[in-house]
Amino acid sequence: MKKWNRILFALLVVVIVFSCKKALIETTGTIELDTTPYNLTYNTLPDPNLPGDNSLTVEKVKLGRMLFYENLLSGDGSMSCASCHNQQNAFSDTARLSTGIDGLLGHRQAMAIVNMAWNDNEFFWDGRAHFLRDQALKPIQDPLEMHETLPNAIAKLEAKGRYRVQFTKAFGNDSITSERMALALEAFMFTLVSNQSKYDRYLTGNATLSESEERGRALFFAEYNPFFPELSGADCAHCHSGSNFENDQYMNNGLDNEAQISDIGRQAVTNSAADKGKFKVPTLRNIALTFPYMHDGRFRTLEEVVEHYNSDIHSSTTLEPQLAYTMPTGLMLNAQDKIDLVNFLKALTDYQFIKNPAFGSPF
Questions:
Q1: Mean pLDDT throughout 201-211?
Q2: 198-207 long-range CB contacts below 8 Å, 24 or more apart?
Q3: pLDDT, tens digit, 9 for 90 and up, residues 131-155
Q4: Rounded to an integer, what distance in angstroms lies between the CA atom of residue 189 and that of residue 150?
Q5: For an engineered disulfide with 38, which of 56, 183, 216, 294 has Cβ 3.0 to 4.6 Å away?
Q6: CATH classification number, 32-193, choose in 3.40.50.1110, 1.10.3210.10, 1.10.760.10, 3.30.428.10
Q7: What's CA 41's distance to the chain center, in Å?
Q8: Mean pLDDT for all residues in the chain
Q9: Alpha-carbon Rg of the chain, whole angstroms?
Q10: CB 216 within 8 A of CB 342
Q11: Which residues pair with 293 in a beta bridge?
Q12: What band does 25 get if pLDDT is binned at 50, 70 and 90?
């Protein structure tokens, strides 16, 4: 009997050792770096300006996607990047100000994450993050948002075998660092490309704009002309230009007069009085889905936004000169003009983007 007990014990030890070795192999042992390139497609958009030190690979993008949706990166495990950047809203937040894990509100409206590879002038409304990888880690550490330390976040990821495996596939070994987290998140966000709106299909001859959308398109791109009102346009393309409908600049768009400016915007980063009240000009792609609007989310509808530019520009020392030029008469848009302009803006919605399973949660 003792002999059989010893045999059974020996077999049990073998099984346990084999299982442990198998688990170890599955988590780290035979996993290797996978440099398979990620195929970034961008249709009517120009070639992106991607960083040379963070090549897009399938496994790095996969890791970034996992991290983007990982609640463990927050202090209480209840919040991820996707909590404030929801795919159904083109990776934005429909709340005027996002609520963090401690019930505190952020200072500004959460910007949409879209076509980041075509962003050439830093990140956040005030541009305080030089690279997208710099931006990626700040919400994790912000007390108003995810309220976690990077060492704690790393420790929680290290305890998960799937992350040791994925860091190895993405970077060559299972060392989990904040630098690698940032690079992976940056890689995933670079893949969030929106280029299949009705307007994109119109440009390639695969869609026809309605009469109202076409009139709105003409108004959008036509310049303001106070001397010939019948020819005057909304001059939107002055700021929202190019294939991504933005100009990589920071501007004061007349939301408040001098005395009312409470958020100094870009000035907080540059320390230049010339930047007071200036904020990043955002893309208009998917704008119908990314309400509320402006850095403080003060406008809930596109109609409110159009009316602001039409008749409610406020003067200040740093007001964009082109907007100041329109103040004596306003844009002179009639009711139908406003409807047409909004309808064109809605034609910038990319429904494939918000439904693409490659951008959704991997969990």
A1: 97
A2: 198/347, 198/348, 198/349, 199/344, 199/347, 199/348, 200/43, 200/44, 200/350, 202/347, 203/44, 204/43, 204/44
A3: 999 999 999 999 999 999 999 999 9
A4: 20
A5: 56
A6: 1.10.760.10
A7: 18
A8: 93
A9: 25
A10: yes
A11: 299
A12: very low
Question: Model-level pTM?
Answer: 0.90
Full 3-state SS string of the chain: CHHHHHHHHHHHHHHHHHHHHHHHHHHHHCCCCCCCECCCCCCCCCCCCCCCCCCCEHHHHHHHHHHHCCHHHCCCCCCCHHHCCEHHHCCECCCCCCECCCCCECCCCCCCCCCHHHCCCCECCCCCECCHHHHHHHHHHCCCCCCCCHHHHHHHHHCCHHHHHHHHHHHCCCCCCHHHHHHHHHHHHHCCCCCCCHHHHHHCCCCCCCHHHHHHHHHHHCCCCCCCHHHCCCCHHHCCCCCCCCCCCEEECCCCCHHHCCCCECHHHHCCHHHCCEEECCCCCCHHHCCCECCCCCECCHHHHHHHHHHCCCCCCCECHHHHHHCCCCCCCCHHHHHHHHHHHHCCCCHHHHHCHHHCCCC
Fold category of 198-347 in CATH: Cytochrome Bc1 Complex; Chain D, domain 2 (1.10.760)
Residue with token string 């302009």: 341
Q: Are 36 and 171 in contact (CB under 8 A)?
A: no
Residue type, 257: N
**Is the pLDDT assigned to residue 18 strictly greater than 70?**
no
In the chain, the amino acid numbered 355 is: K
- Tokens 């299949």, located at residue: 196
In this predicted structure, what is the pLDDT of residue 23?
A: 41
Examine the pLDDT at 12 and tell me if it is beyond 50: no
CA distance 189 to 136: 9
Q: Distance between CA 318 and CA 316 in Å, rounded? A: 6
- Establish how many alpha carbons lie within 13 A of residue 258's alpha carbon, considering only the half-sphere containing its beta carbon: 6
CA distance 311 to 318: 19
Distances (CA, A) of 125 to 253, 265, 297, 342: 13, 7, 12, 24
Structure confidence at residue 73 (pLDDT): 98
Please say if the pLDDT value at position 14 is more than 70: no
CA–CA gap between residue 310 and residue 321 (Å, rounded):
15
d(CA 295, CA 263): 9
